[in-house]
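Quiz preparation item.
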């Protein structure tokens, strides 16, 4: 995602009315987003514009609406050896299909922004085979957000891509020094607590098609 798309998540919300970046009309406080597939930018969108590019409307082309599906798989498991093979140097990363490249890609939040990590596909496919998740994940706009908990265990969330960049923005905003600092970790834990609260739980072993999108 570009710096333009990420900037909206870096600071406190501004008092001015958010406007749709497609038609300039007021978008509302809880507006949705669309992804510009050419620039990889995330744009605020009013309801009318978002519906134009909704997957259900069959839209194709430059823009794609970001859905609002939140799933939580607490039984998701990634061992230390697999995580090391995935080459993710931190506890959290997100994975999504880039339609332009026609392949899965991996990023992790860092104080410098979203950092891409070369994804070994064989390892990724092995992890996903061991952890069935819904197969109807939309490219570019939905992502698997994997968090290896400090107390042990791993959780996986299927989220709108905008949620991943909200986490990246929190890290950029609050991270201090080498370890991040208490403020950063409180913000990160608060983000995941809110994510769990709004997500529907995926039972262990569930996969296939999901209608909650």
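Solution:
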């Amino acid at each position: 995602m570009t710096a333009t798309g990420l900037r909206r998540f870096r600071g406190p919300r501004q008092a001015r009315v958010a406007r749709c970046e497609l038609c300039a009309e007021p978008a509302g406080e809880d507006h949705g987003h669309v992804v510009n597939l050419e620039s990889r930018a995330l744009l605020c969108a009013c309801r009318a514009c978002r519906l134009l590019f909704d997957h259900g409307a069959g839209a194709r082309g430059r823009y794609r609406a970001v859905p609002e599906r939140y799933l939580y798989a607490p039984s998701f498991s990634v061992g230390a050896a697999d995580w090391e093979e995935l080459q993710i140097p931190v506890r959290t990363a997100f994975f999504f299909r880039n339609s332009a490249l026609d392949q899965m890609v991996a990023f992790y939040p860092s104080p410098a922004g979203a950092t891409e990590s070369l994804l070994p596909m064989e390892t990724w496919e092995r992890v996903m085979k061991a952890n069935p998740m819904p197969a109807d994940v939309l490219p570019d706009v939905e992502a698997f957000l994997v968090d290896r908990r400090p107390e042990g265990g791993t959780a996986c969330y299927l989220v709108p891509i905008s949620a991943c960049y909200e986490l990246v923005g929190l890290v950029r905003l609050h991270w201090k020094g080498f370890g991040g600092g208490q403020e950063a970790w409180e913000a990160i834990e608060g983000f995941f607590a809110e994510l769990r609260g709004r997500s529907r739980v995926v039972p262990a072993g569930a996969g296939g098609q999901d209608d909650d999108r």
